[in-house]
């Protein structure tokens, strides 16, 4: 049996302004087994902010990992404990984001230059929780991007007890490239991630970056333990419609796009009753019919009507009626 977190072969990457609770619930209409992540949440936000708003989720979203951003081991430990109390399945430390805002807080990708501090953070978190503590990092940063640099980072952090590493198979430039450019401009270096797995066979190594098809997923899984898909999971969410069957061995029927939308309707009405804006939910659904006949009509109806007074699940049903079965 596949473990929900520590041995899960497929996940959707944490993405800022993308993987909020409404997107995750939507994805659960498509795949029940794929591991999902929150957006990155910083430790100060959790310690001082509205925790229910930041950390709340529907039980249907599990298995679910909270991604943390921070560099203070005691703060990270406190937040890991809070995550466990909220019933997250694991916590993940972000060592991959290259944005200037994140760098100013001394966390994200810049921490690849401080493996000992990351190890201290992992150890502090593991000391106070029983759920897994995992790390997501890059191949390297700036001129510290030799394979040997990444191997040393993983060695140090793994010796602190971390067993799960997700590697974005690109280096990050901390200066000169935007976060978007850092997702596309540095070349992919899959072979180095595969080598990492060979040299650390006892660790669970997941690869991330540039993977957009299930054929690529299956090819990667011959070399590596797991695959994380990022932007393709948002731009083409129906990509995941067959994974419960084809990756996880489930025997249930593959949901149609229409069934997925219909599954969202009660959820939409529930959150509208709590004064959540309809667009906060439907914006994640726009790409469901990507590359299908009627996708323009679907997106146009939603875009033109979800902001109107009285818009509700019926608005979504009307948009669905414009797409052929």
From TrEMBL:
Q: Which InterPro entries match?
A: Aldolase_TIM, DUS-like_FMN-bd, DUS_fam, DusA, tRNA_hU_synthase_CS
Q: Which major enzyme category is it?
A: oxidoreductase
Q: Which residues form the DUS-like FMN-binding domain?
A: 12-316
Entry binding sites for FMN: 14-16, 67, 136, 168, 208-210, 230-231
Q: Where is the active site?
A: 97
Q: Extract the GO molecular function terms from the UniProt entry.
A: flavin adenine dinucleotide binding; FMN binding; tRNA binding; tRNA-dihydrouridine20 synthase activity; tRNA-dihydrouridine20a synthase activity
Q: What are the UniProt keywords, alphabetically?
A: Flavoprotein, FMN, NADP, Nucleotide-binding, Oxidoreductase, RNA-binding, tRNA processing, tRNA-binding
Q: Which superkingdom does the taxonomy of this entry point to? A: Bacteria
Q: Which reaction does it catalyse?
A: 5,6-dihydrouridine(20a) in tRNA + NADP(+) = uridine(20a) in tRNA + NADPH + H(+); 5,6-dihydrouridine(20) in tRNA + NAD(+) = uridine(20) in tRNA + NADH + H(+); 5,6-dihydrouridine(20a) in tRNA + NAD(+) = uridine(20a) in tRNA + NADH + H(+); 5,6-dihydrouridine(20) in tRNA + NADP(+) = uridine(20) in tRNA + NADPH + H(+)
Q: What does this protein do?
A: Catalyzes the synthesis of 5,6-dihydrouridine (D), a modified base found in the D-loop of most tRNAs, via the reduction of the C5-C6 double bond in target uridines. Specifically modifies U20 and U20a in tRNAs.
Member of which family?
Belongs to the dus family.
Q: What is this protein called?
A: tRNA-dihydrouridine(20/20a) synthase
Q: Which gene produces this protein? A: yjbN
